[in-house]
Amino acid sequence: MAADLLVVGLGNPGREYAGTRHNVGFDVVELLASRHGGRFRRSRQRARVAEVLIDGRRVVLAEPQTYMNLSGEAVAPLVRHNGIDDLHRLVVVHDELDLPVGRLKVKVGGGLAGHNGLRSIKAHLHSAEFVRVRIGVGKPPDRERGADHVLQRASRSERAALDEAVRDAADAVEVILAEGPQAAMTRFNAT
5-188 is classed in which CATH architecture? Predict the structure, then answer.
């Protein structure tokens, strides 16, 4: 049976990456699983997967276990396995350097802003026309490289903003499911 929505949170597997800026996508799908009674298990598609029902609709939540830069190696098989024939039913939740800490934006398609996880997904799907929920982690201070910035844990004040953004992102996914990406953009991009 095809999923109504496939929600992929991007991040890196392993305890050493838990709580880093790069793993906010994992945080969102874990929150959604918690809200809707889902339990993650390993899948053949190189991901941890939880299936939940939200308002009677089947939603698959996934955390690729390939490391961020190879996310497409898990996402493409997940798309096929779950019968996603319209990429507007694929939602990718990820960190975004180009947004201030805690800022949330919903977007369909467009550029990849140098995000290697998105680049890998586009390469494997041969399209960038999926829905994105972007969570701002801010630009690195000084000349620190973006890779170093996203692999660090946030400061206490940033963490509070990121935790709120994770809750808002989970809400945005629920709006995408119920009303579509445009409604989510209208509601969440204005704030």
Answer: 3-Layer(aba) Sandwich (3.40)
Contacts of 51 (CB under 8 A, 6+ apart): 3, 38, 58, 59, 60, 61
Chain position carrying tokens 């579509």: 180
pLDDT digits (tens, 9 = 90+) for 72-130: 999 999 999 999 999 999 999 999 988 998 999 999 999 887 889 999 999 999 999 99
3-state secondary structure (DSSP) of residue 98: coil
Could you tell me the residue ranges of all domains in the chain? 5-188
Active site residue 115: no
Distance of alpha carbon 75 from alpha carbon 46, whole angstroms:
9
CA atoms within 13 A on the CB side of 171: 12
